[in-house]
Amino acid sequence: MIHRPQRVPRCRTRTVDLVLAVALLACAVPGSMLTIPGRELEVPWWPGVLISGLASLALLWRRTLPRATVVVTLCCAMVVAGLGYVVTVLVIGPLMVALYALALRSERTTANLFTAAGIILLVATGLVSGPHGEPLVLKLLGPVFWLLLPTSLGTSTRLRAAYLEAVRARAEHAERTREQEARHRVTEERMRIARDLHDVVAHHLVLANLQAGTVVRLMRSRPEEAERIAAELAGTTQSAVRELKATVGLLRHADDSETMSGPAPGLARLAELAASFEPAGLTVTVSTEGRPQPLSAGTDLTAYRIVQEALTNVTKHAGTGFAEVRLSYAHDRLGITVTDQGGAAPAPSPGTGGGYGVIGMRERALSAGGRLRAGHRPEGGFEVVTELPLLPRSPTHNQNALA
Fold first, then answer.
1. I want to staple 320 with a disulfide (CB 3.0 to 4.6 A). Which of 297, 342, 345, 394 is the partner?
2. For residue 162, what is the enclosing H or E element?
3. Could you tell me the domains of the chain?
4. pTM, full prediction
């Protein structure tokens, strides 16, 4: 029972080959009796049947030994032609089947070479030893046509099968490429959300930590000020919860009932962002150079997050109470510069992330098609410089500018 499924295809193939051999042998009987009109058969019919039977038997190996099969069937066909039989499709059928099998399993050059050799040998044998009185046109054109036909069919079948296989391979490659592209996009989206979570958590936790420390210090000496800062601490935590909910909401499916609580932050909220650092003891000034121009949603969010992360790093490491944010609008670029007046920033401890904030800012800038540079200034302090692309100007805007 276990081996039966494996034997069924082979048995069917053998059955088909035997049926084909018997059919060709049956065709050889009338083929060996054909004569030129008005002439009697010059040779007995049974040698032609016997030789055709040998050629038909050789077809059993046409799948595994196609070249040897062609040689054997060609020799049989030449013997039939040399004995004086009329060369028709009935007597050279085994050679035609062998040439078809060869063209189906070999390159075009090989099939054409065997076919040309068969035509030359068969025509030459017919001209030398063929039946007397047979028209010369039949001796020349008959073998040429009957041998070229199976070769052409076999070659076209093989090429079509190769074409279908190539189409299937391209479809599988395209499917794998789509899957890889989808996984790549999922990975990029996860990295983007991870950067958002890092920025939101780092920003609000730093502010909350500084505000809580200030409340503890002022609780006895200045209770009114401590109460005010405690109220601002509550606002900081509420803002953190809102932004975390909005960021984590991106992980939900589109058909979920809950959606983002508000629009994504951008440079329009830069003043609000700068004011949020005041309870932590950091005064932020914002200046703009050039005419403000529209940004895409992604670039606007990227600019906001870079400024947020840069100011958070100032609060954690710079040891200064002042920072400056400068926006410079050019014809196709937006420059963002965040500087502080503090001394050299202390190296972060291993528990603080080891400088992943700068890496995250640089990844954000690159993802938006821009670039970022961060480092110490010669006159002291730290500087983060970013360039981001602006939206392309409309034709109307360009015409007005030229006018």
1. 342
2. helix 136-218
3. 4-172 (no CATH), 266-403 (3.30.565.10)
4. 0.48
